[in-house]
């Protein structure tokens, strides 16, 4: 089959690799001049990433073994969790190289312009000319604002996007500990983070639905940080009614909104989605039904996100008090953020007072 992928991020390139190695003609178009740049992601992976068996040394920056959580009143708990901090440029290029090695062709400086009936119009930015192509299958992997999804008419109007602002800063950091800060004056609806690359460098950021730069500047000032490098990006929130397949086009990754609403992490679910999509194309299966187990996880993240978005600062303090109990903390240390179903069921069994927050669903 002749397959076109719009977007050469890790999810699009991984799908391209899986399809190209089975003998299909795969072409990937990327509108930026360099794969992985500009950086628009913190680059944190849970240990669920181990399931893919990729060589971490190709892109690993730091390994985390603990997450500290701070409430608005500065209550603190530490949860043992193994996470990886990766270099997004090396990470993205790792998947691009695998796709090329499998036979996929990647063209940078090529942007999707429009759909004309069964054809796509791609602009060669350097040559300033339009290419008209007729792929049998189109995979939209072109980010949260996906022009491809919009052109095919299935970009859900109720999708929400967060706006993240992040800086690389210098200072003195605990190298194996990510620190997260909750509160409506800190980062309403989500949290601020300090993710160390080393003892002297960290990635610091916030993400909100609006006024991200305001909250980011406040957080930087409060912690006396000076930005050495700035990064920013749009991050989608999973929407269960988002259509993912229409005509000959499929959505993956941020274009599909396959991001955990509680943390805005999308790399592990996106890679899982790419595997499911490749299997569906290769084995002629229906895409949406095959995604059901992954959709259940993302739906649960969305429900928790809906609850947390209505938290008062007192709720955050109360939540952290509950999680700080040894028997509850042990549950949080037993499951990753990419495995929320057993995590939540065991948490509710061990501490029924969590149920008091369900009122925020209505």
Brief rundown of the structure:
The protein is an alpha/beta fold and 362 residues long. The protein has helices at 10-20, 88-101, 147-151, 212-222, 267-283, 287-290, 292-308, 313-323, 326-332, 340-350, and strands spanning 2-6, 25-29, 44-46, 60-70, 76-86, 105-107, 110-116, 119-124, 129-133, 137-140, 161-170, 177-181, 192-196, 201-208, 227-236, 245-246, 249-251. α1 packs parallel to α5.
Explained architecture:
The chain is an alpha/beta fold and 362 residues long. It has 2 domains: 299 residues, FAD/NAD(P)-binding domain; 50 residues, no CATH class. The protein is 30% helix and 28% strand. It contains 10 helices and 17 strands. The strands form 3 sheets. It has an 8-stranded mixed beta sheet with strand order 3-5-4-12-13-14-11-15. Strand 4 and strand 5 form a beta hairpin. The radius of gyration is 21 Å and the shape is globular.
Features of the shown structure:
eight-stranded mixed β-sheet; 362 residues; 17 strands; six-stranded mixed β-sheet; alpha/beta; FAD/NAD(P)-binding domain; 2 domains
Write the layout of secondary structure elements.
Blueprint: E1 2-6, H1 10-20, E2 25-29, E3 44-46, E4 60-70, E5 76-86, H2 88-101, E6 105-107, E7 110-116, E8 119-124, E9 129-133, E10 137-140, H3 147-151, E11 161-170, E12 177-181, E13 192-196, E14 201-208, H4 212-222, E15 227-236, E16 245-246, E17 249-251, H5 267-283, H6 287-290, H7 292-308, H8 313-323, H9 326-332, H10 340-350
Parallel strand pairs: 1-2, 1-10, 2-6, 4-12, 10-17
Antiparallel strand pairs: 3-5, 4-5, 7-8, 8-9, 11-14, 11-15, 12-13, 13-14, 16-17
